[in-house]
Amino acid sequence: MEDLNIKQLTLAVRTIAEEKNLPEETVLSVIEQAIAAAWRRDNGTRDQLVRASLNINNGTAVVSVVKTVVEEVENDANQIDLEEAKEIDPAAELGGEVVMETHNVTTFGRVAAQTAKQVILQRLREAEREVVLAEFEDKIGTVVIRYGSAS
């Protein structure tokens, strides 16, 4: 699989934001979610909480596996007990989160790339709907008349 090109991805973020009339931060967030889902597909488990962050300045993508600090672990994939959490982060508290491991992302397999594509398409559609809803939210309960020829 071809290497992940963050600089090219940054250009795509700007283009998509303009075309879809969305803030760049929203599009960037969608792509980070997609990278996290793709990484989880290739390397993790379904239950894991995975977060991705893109650094558009230095062209890197980093994925972190996050676990919630609990008294008694019921799910190893996304929970860690307080004692273990304190070894990783001395400031860890019950109910808080601890970053277990981080990975630089450079490539994805074919299936993971398809997963990322699906996440991007779905999240962009959701974001577009939210923008339209916000645009017309103040018009709920009013009658809107459209002037012009009906084609």
Characterize the structure shown:
The chain is of the alpha+beta class and 151 residues long. 46% of the residues lie in helices and 19% in strands. Strands 1, 2, 3 and 4 form a 4-stranded mixed sheet that branches. It is globular, with a radius of gyration of 20 Å. The N and C termini lie far apart (48 Å). The mean pLDDT is 86. GO terms for molecular function: DNA-binding transcription factor activity; RNA binding. Residues 9-130 form the Transcription factor NusA N-terminal domain. Keywords: RNA-binding. InterPro entries: NusA_N_sf (IPR036555), TF_NusA_bacterial (IPR030842), TF_NusA_N (IPR013735).
List the helices and strands and how they pair.
Layout: H1 6-20, H2 24-43, E1 49-55, E2 60-70, E3 79-81, H3 82-88, E4 97-104, H4 110-136
Parallel strand pairs: 2-3
Antiparallel strand pairs: 1-2, 2-4
Summarize the structure.
The protein is of the alpha+beta class. Helices cover 46% and strands 19% of the residues.
Q: What tags apply to this protein structure?
A:
globular; alpha+beta; 4 helices; single chain; 19% strand; N Utilization Substance Protein A, Chain:P, domain 4; RNA binding
